[in-house]
Predict the structure.
Amino acid sequence: MKRSFYEILGVAHDADQAKLDAAYEAATVKLNSTTSVRGTAESVAEMKLLREGYQLLSNHEQRVKYDAKLSAEASGIKLMFFPGTPVSRRKLGIQTVVFAALAATLTGIVYFQLTKEMDAVQTDYNQTLAKKQEEQNKPVVIDATQPAAEDKKADKQNNTELPQQ
């Protein structure tokens, strides 16, 4: 489980600067007394965490942000703070510009593909309308020399009903 800087330094969340100084000094003395001359990777990492925690908790602005982050994580919320250094802001700005350029490019590609597809659909629709209009405008031709099929049926029925003389 991830430890907070308060746990690493062994102080309460409401500790003042004097308590932080005393805890940092006690923790470094304890770590240095238990470490051999060369030191181990674990003790170096622990010393680095102690130093980072002390620096962060000693700075009021950073401590407020850190406390907000801890309380948000405890409640299951992940916070993201705007970068504080100019280099970080510049990096974020560059990433944002790259993201915007990619988004615009992909939007353009999708728009082009959709308009191309819509043109094809509209052409098919216009052709279908033209065919229907041609069928409607076609003249109706009635051949008066040949009786219609219905007339032939009626004639057959009439012939069978009339008695032959």
Observations:
- Residues 86-137 form the longest helix (52 residues).
- The domain at 5-74 is CATH 1.10.287.110 (Helix Hairpins).
- Helices lie at 5-9, 17-34, 41-58, 60-74, 86-137, 149-161.
